[in-house]
Design a protein that fits this description.
Order of helices and strands: EHEEEHEEEHEEHEEEEEHEEEE
CATH topology of the largest domain: Pseudouridine synthase
CATH architecture of the largest domain: 2-Layer Sandwich
Strand content: 35-45%
CATH class of the largest domain: Alpha Beta
Helix content: 10-25%
Length: 293
């Protein structure tokens, strides 16, 4: 069981809850996710299984695409429906054109402040842990990229929207900032992720029905990369993490043996293929492994 499993995450569970469920389902501890979804959110949650946990760093997890709903009238402590209102409700009086103008101001490269209730670390402590203890939290702004923030339906005091953004973007913060621009406050009431880099909702399976047959095998990953086929001495060198000669173009490549076994991810440069992650040993040889939780 080595490969990727794309879960259509249900609402009400943390991403870690999903990982724990899949670990029990597959009877393995080697499961990690490629980017969290808030408990309220649903949709694409890519998981790496077995040896694939070693190559998580090489998957594209951006851009991300979401659809959801924003409710105007008041902001909340968490920037979504699960928080407490921070002030009295105000009427939503913006026209469709005023709303579109405000949404357009949140497209592009932005300095976005993450919510106090988030996984961001301040001095080594999770922001949400400090917030739950009643401590004042001031997250520093983070540079994010929003390539689309579109109105899908205008149903005051709510709207349905679509967002395409880069990694690290908080859609909750987009909702909060939109409410500030319109002077009435706002919070996120639903969110569904349709795409996370290489992974789309069409490939996702419900958590309750996921099984071994839904795993994309390791040898079917990164097929867009060139393959270097080895045997004999070269195969033994690769298994030990040693470089081998290669006339291929610079970039990442898969190293396979003649039986089709995926041996390693390598970086090709200056006539050599240097293994970045060796998949045939229990200890990977890698330069900066992905952070999987």
């Amino acid at each position: 069981m080595n490969g990727t499993l794309i879960i259509d995450k249900p609402g009400g569970m943390t991403s870690h809850d999903v990982v724990q469920r899949v670990r029990r389902l597959l009877n393995t501890s080697r499961v990690g996710h490629l980017g969290t979804l808030d408990p309220m959110a649903t949709g694409v949650l890519p998981l790496c299984i077995g040896k694939a946990t070693r190559v998580g760093q090489f998957f594209a997890t951006a851009p991300k695409e979401y659809i959801g709903e924003i409710r105007f009238g008041f902001a909340t402590t968490t920037y979504d429906r699960e928080g407490d209102p921070v002030d009295a409700e105000k009427p939503f009086t913006a026209t469709r054109d005023e709303l579109l103008a405000a949404m357009s101001e949140l497209i592009g490269t932005l300095d976005q402040t993450p919510p106090a209730y988030s996984a961001k670390r301040i001095g080594g402590v999770r922001s949400h842990d400090s917030a739950r203890r009643g401590e004042a939290v001031e997250n520093a702004p983070v540079r994010v990229e929003v390539s689309a923030f579109e109105l899908v339906e205008f149903t005051p005091p709510s709207i349905q929207f679509r967002v395409v953004c880069g990694g690290g973007t908080y859609v909750r913060s987009l909702a909060h900032d939109l409410g500030k621009r319109l002077g009435c406050g706002a919070h996120l009431t639903s969110l569904r992720r349709l795409q996370s880099g290489d992974f789309g909702i069409a490939d996702a399976v419900p958590l309750d029905s996921a099984g071994i047959s839904d795993i994309t095998p390791l040898d079917q990953l990164f097929l867009r990369w060139p393959a270097i086929v080895v045997s004999g001495l070269e195969e033994r060198r690769v298994r030990k993490g040693n470089p081998i000669p290669s006339e291929g173009a610079s970039g990442l490549a898969r190293i396979l043996n003649k039986q089709g076994e995926f041996l390693a991810v390598a970086a090709v440069e200056s006539g050599w293929a240097r293994p970045r992650v060796v998949l045939t040993s229990e200890t990977s040889v890698e330069a900066g492994a992905a952070s999987l939780h």
